[in-house]
């Protein structure tokens, strides 16, 4: 059974409700049909009910079974306005401003998650990362003991013997532009937990660089060395090593030459990139050239599951991210 089918099966054990606030996007409606057919999550669509049903009908998409809420007509509207004012009053939130924000589908969906009406939210097919995550950080806040909210991709590479049968986490590939040593530690430790939740295998973390064990020296390589040492000191149970070049991290034959004493080199399945440039370019290269499945950007560190999508996502990408979000909700 492949990665995403395994996630769907696990999600069916305790079905959660996921909000999709971009109901005017055809890909979201196509994904909704699949999710409802496969019964691994309940779906809430945010928008005008008549317009949503008409668009679905015009495209031969069946969405019966999805709950549709229109913020402007919702009986929860005033309740959510009052709650948003209360949550943000120290930041100067006024009732007038809250009334406008709650009409926004992403804000409304996030309020549903906050109030327990839903268990998670997936957005980003038609919104920027900032527009998806801003409401989550303002309303849901960060999870306990979270030092940094970060984003990762689950990459599933076909016909690949590396990683965990071709499955990897790439981080941070969607959020933090240039994390420092503390940031890299937070990203690595959170990514290890995410890998073990989603893949159910031991995380083996490679701190990536253009150098392996000092083959080159610069401030760029030193950052990854310092981060590796800090992670090892603070999290002795984690399997982590660095700095490692990508080939040394995942290919056993190269690891034997470049890092023969490493317990991670040659078998890494969690790849931590030095900055967002490398992480974002890396995931897109693997997705497009290796025809890999790319699920994300998935978020870690928010109090309840909220996940982003690439605006170039397919309907099947949305289906996969909803399944992952449902599994994250179970884990709470």
In short:
47% of the residues lie in helices and 16% in strands. With 332 residues, it is of the alpha/beta class.
What does this protein structure show overall?
The protein folds into 2 domains: 3-141 and 305-331, Rossmann fold (3-Layer(aba) Sandwich), CATH 3.40.50; 150-289, Isocitrate/Isopropylmalate dehydrogenase-like (Rossmann fold, 3-Layer(aba) Sandwich), CATH 3.40.50.10750. It starts with a helix and ends with a helix. Strand 2, helix 3 (49-58) and strand 3 (67-69) form a beta-alpha-beta unit. Helix 4 crosses helix 5 (95-103). 47% of the residues lie in helices and 16% in strands. The chain is globular and about 65 Å long. By secondary structure, the protein is α/β, with parallel strands linked by helices. 52% of the residues are buried. The longest helix is centred in the middle third of the chain and has 19 residues, at 181-199. The protein has helices spanning 3-12, 26-38, 49-58, 77-88, 95-103, 105-115, 129-140, 181-199, 219-234, 246-250, 252-258, 276-289, 315-331, and strands at residues 16-20, 41-46, 67-69, 120-122, 150-156, 167-171, 204-208, 239-244, 270-272, 293-300, 306-307.
List the helices and strands and how they pair.
Layout: H1 3-12, E1 16-20, H2 26-38, E2 41-46, H3 49-58, E3 67-69, H4 77-88, H5 95-103, H6 105-115, E4 120-122, H7 129-140, E5 150-156, E6 167-171, H8 181-199, E7 204-208, H9 219-234, E8 239-244, H10 246-250, H11 252-258, E9 270-272, H12 276-289, E10 293-300, E11 306-307, H13 315-331
Parallel strand pairs: 1-2, 1-4, 2-3, 4-11, 6-9, 7-8, 7-9
Antiparallel strand pairs: 5-6, 5-10
Helix pairs in contact: 1-13, 2-13, 4-5, 4-6, 6-7, 8-9
């Amino acid at each position: 059974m492949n990665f995403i089918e395994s996630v769907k099966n696990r999600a069916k054990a305790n079905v959660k409700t996921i909000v999709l606030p971009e109901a005017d996007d055809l890909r979201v409606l196509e994904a909704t049909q699949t999710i409802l057919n496969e019964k691994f999550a309940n779906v809430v669509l945010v928008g005008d009910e008549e317009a949503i049903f008409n668009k679905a009908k015009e495209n031969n998409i069946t969405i019966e079974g999805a709950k549709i809420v229109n913020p402007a007509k919702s009986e929860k509207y005033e309740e959510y306005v009052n709650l948003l004012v209360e949550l943000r009053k120290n930041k100067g939130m006024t009732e007038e401003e809250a009334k406008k924000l709650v009409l926004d589908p992403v804000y409304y969906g996030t309020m549903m998650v906050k109030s327990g009406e839903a268990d998670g939210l997936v957005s980003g097919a038609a919104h920027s990362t900032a527009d998806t995550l801003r409401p989550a950080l303002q309303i849901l806040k960060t999870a306990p003991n979270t030092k940094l909210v970060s984003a990762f991709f689950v990459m599933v590479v076909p016909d690949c013997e590396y990683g965990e049968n071709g499955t990897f986490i790439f981080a941070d590939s969607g959020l933090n532009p240039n994390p420092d040593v503390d940031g890299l530690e937070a990203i690595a430790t959170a990514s290890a937990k995410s890998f073990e939740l989603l893949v159910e295998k031991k995380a083996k973390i490679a701190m990536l660089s253009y150098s392996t064990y000092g083959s080159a020296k610069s401030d760029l390589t030193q950052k990854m060395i310092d981060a590796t040492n800090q992670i090892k000191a603070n999290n002795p149970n984690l399997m982590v090593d660095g700095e490692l070049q990508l080939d040394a991290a995942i290919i056993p034959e190269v690891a034997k030459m470049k890092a023969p004493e490493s317990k991670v080199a040659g078998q890494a399945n969690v790849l931590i990139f030095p900055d967002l440039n490398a992480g974002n370019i890396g995931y897109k290269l693997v997705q497009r050239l290796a025809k890999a499945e790319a699920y994300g950007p998935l978020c870690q560190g928010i109090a309840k599951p909220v996940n982003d999508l690439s605006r170039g996502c397919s309907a099947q990408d949305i289906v996969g991210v909803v399944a992952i979000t449902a599994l994250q909700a179970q884990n709470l």
